[in-house]
Amino acid sequence: MSTLALALSRPAQLLGTGSPAHGVEFAQLKALLSAVQSDRRAAASAPQSVALAELARVAKACSQRGWDGYDAQPISRQTQLNARVFLEDLPMWLQAPDIVPEPDGEIAIEWDLGPGRIFSVSIGDTGKLHYAGLFQGGVERHGVEPFEGVVSTEILGYAKRLLDAASAASRSRAA
Fold first, then answer.
1. Number of structural domains, the chain?
2. Using only C-alpha atoms, what is the Rg of the chain?
3. Is residue 60 part of a domain?
4. pLDDT, tens digit, for every residue of 43-93?
5. Gap between the Cα atoms of 113 and 135, Å rounded
6. Its pTM surpasses 0.90
């Protein structure tokens, strides 16, 4: 017996846009993938749902050239898809990030916890992740890495480091 495993976060890549496939089996597979996606979105954590809704709002508001009143590049459908896959792969325990459009057509996924405490990941249509962070004690980290549908442990580690430090600072202020 054989088993087929599919990455369901991007069914368009599986079926293709304007796929020439047709017939009952194709329609059933397409409906099944759509239902699984809906279930997955419904099961998303509240912070993740907030971030995904904000992504949709930002992408729509910034879909035309010059959305910033100057000459900003539009947010492409591929950039929106890459950002969506990134957000869907974040663990549920992670605080919802802010979604910030960038004039070069990329989207920044950002955790800003005040002066000297920020971590940002920019993603565009190429799928490369550009990240930068300021951490407690003036520590800075930045880099570039490919994004292939899974958020790296390095990026998750930086986000966790930022949130843990903010949580510890909050606890010490409360004590």
1. 1
2. 18
3. yes
4. 556 778 899 999 999 999 999 999 999 999 999 999 999 999 999 999 888
5. 10
6. no
